Amino acid sequence: MKRFLLAAAGLFWAQLIIAQTPVIRWSASRMLRLSDYIIIKPGQESPAALGRNMAVTRTGFVYTMARITSGTNKGKSMIRVYAQMTPSHSYIVAEVAKGSPEDRAYLLNHEQKHFDISEIYARELSRFLRTQSLGKAPMERMTNEMNRLFKELDAYQKKYDAETANGRNKQKQELWNLRIAQRLKALLPYAAKDYILSLPR
Question: What sections of the sequence does the record tag as coiled-coil (predicted)?
Fold first, then answer.
């Protein structure tokens, strides 16, 4: 039986303002599936982001902030943090889509781990908000921490792809599967990511 030489990559991003593009929010009970991707058929122009890979997933973490206008928390701000995947910028080649269930599952697992890494860093921001005092310049502190986490997330995603050879090294992939699961578990106390904060207007 033919086995694909699987190569996948993550397309990483982070933003402060949510675009109108439909997204999938990370959930422990909802894994990525083939229908979440645009399938690139033979002869179809390949998106630049896909390169020579079999799949690419656009994922990252974001936060939203809204002023509360009524109730006991009126005047404070609600901050929500979450990891998300953007289907309209995520691709899989048709060769994988038509391949064996084992090949599809293996590749989707590699891509899911990119999504899981984004969730790790969403939880890292959650930990920061829960455990650190924002002081007299809360927005500056938040911005600095976000920038630090964005850089760390990008480096970690690239390290994951480099060490697993974009999923081709199955032994390394298994090690990373375990490493990512352990980090998610360690950050489980910060899985809830809604905060009410007093921020200056």
Answer: 139-166
